[in-house]
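Justification of resources, computational component.

The compute hours requested in this renewal are based largely on the per-chain cost of generating structure records like the one below. Each record pairs the submitted sequence with a full structure-token output. That output is archived, and it is also reused by downstream analysis tasks.
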Amino acid sequence: MVDDERLVLEQNEAFYAAFNARDAAAMAELWSEEAPCACLHPSTPPIHGRAAVLRSWSQILGSPNAPLVACERTEIRRYGSTAIVACFERVGERRSEKRTIAVLAATNVFVLERGRWR
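The structure output for this chain reads:
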């Protein structure tokens, strides 16, 4: 269980690293290919399906105004082959890494797919 929590935490950290690096390929590697995917960006309707989710990330990551996001105060709960990460996202300006624009509550859900948390 502890190893799984560490692996989930590593994947969660990889998500934020891909976001901050604006790396669409790394972001795509994190999303499930088998389980249903959904994403809820702040102030937008839910997005369903892997292709639509990845399109939304490509648009965000391709924007020169995409903010920096840091994940804080993570809590992980595992339920079989599903893990839920609850955290706070500290959203900052890309031009000024020290200026926080907002703090958002976030929930990231991972599934165990072919031995890998995605």
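DSSP finds three helices and six strands in the chain. The CA atoms of residues 89 and 104 lie 5 Å apart.
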